[in-house]
Amino acid sequence: MVTFEVMYNATTPHCADLSSPSYVNFTLSILILLGILISYLPQHHRIVSRRSSEGISPYFVLLGTTSGTCAFANILTLPASQRDLACCRELSGFDCAAGLLGMAQVGVQWVCFIIILLLFLLFFPTATPFAPSSQPTNQPSLRTAFIVFGTCILHLILVFIVSAIILYRFPSHLTAWAHTLGILGTCLAAVQFLPQIYTTWKLQAVESLSIPMMCIQTPGSFVWVGSLAARFGWEGWSTWGIYLVTGVLQGCLLGMGITFEVRKWKKRKQGVEGVDGNGHAGDDDHEGTRLLDNER
């Protein structure tokens, strides 16, 4: 940040613009920030309440976490963000906070997905650690979960180390690095939902995946894209492009999840998953009950 502080240590047109923030944009940015936080809470709660991350693809978690890391590093190293940070030296606290809300939004989303990564590992359903042969057919091994967790942490460390080196030692390459992170994040985001779409389709159920989260995030993604595009313009295409792609794919996953839940509700209403004439439970979700019935 030293380089940009030297360039923008005096009053500049850019800093002057930040000193007069639009209260409408500020309010909208705050609402988006709160919306991002609130949208992830149903997913966190669903995993904790079920005490299981069953049904959540480890590769969805891997791609989502690494994509989020790239997105956060991208917005931190973007020249426009560096200019905003440098201007904070001469702006009031409110003006500075208003100017940094875009970075705060991406940062909150990144933290929320890191929490999903932690909960995914903490509540990973398994009977015997590191024994893939003992796992259910559709359930990945605990080894896979640990590999995903380790890869995400290693990726995070490497990205921020390289970003710091370029920022302080090779600032002339900062724009290229920011766009590289943005392109990488967009590529990861483009395929992020594909493993989860496949897993959900294979299970024909959402399991630990939260539909309320997707109901909030899908339309919210497009609102967020508009907010970031208005703040950073075409120069920040590598930042808001990530969320445009994820919004479309998440919408596909949401439609699939709702379809499966409606079908499940109809079966319950028809008594398929209720109690049959012999008093046996017929819920497809209760594997143990089905096994007992078979033994009888």
Outline type: globular
Mean pLDDT: 79
What is the strand tally?
0
Share of helical residues: over 70%
Q: Uncertain runs with pLDDT below 50, 5 residues or more?
A: 1-10, 128-136, 276-296
Question: How much beta, percentage-wise?
Answer: under 5%
Query: How many helices does DSSP assign?
Result: 12
Q: Which assembly state applies to the chains in this document? A: single chain
**Between the first and last Cα atoms, what is the distance in angstroms?**
71 Å
Class by alpha and beta content? mainly alpha
- What string, H for helix and E for strand, traces the elements in order? HHHHHHHHHHHH
- Provide the gyration radius in Å: 23 Å
Biggest pleated-sheet summary: none
Main location: membrane
Organism: Lepraria finkii
Biased composition (Basic and acidic residues): 281-296
Subcellular location: Membrane
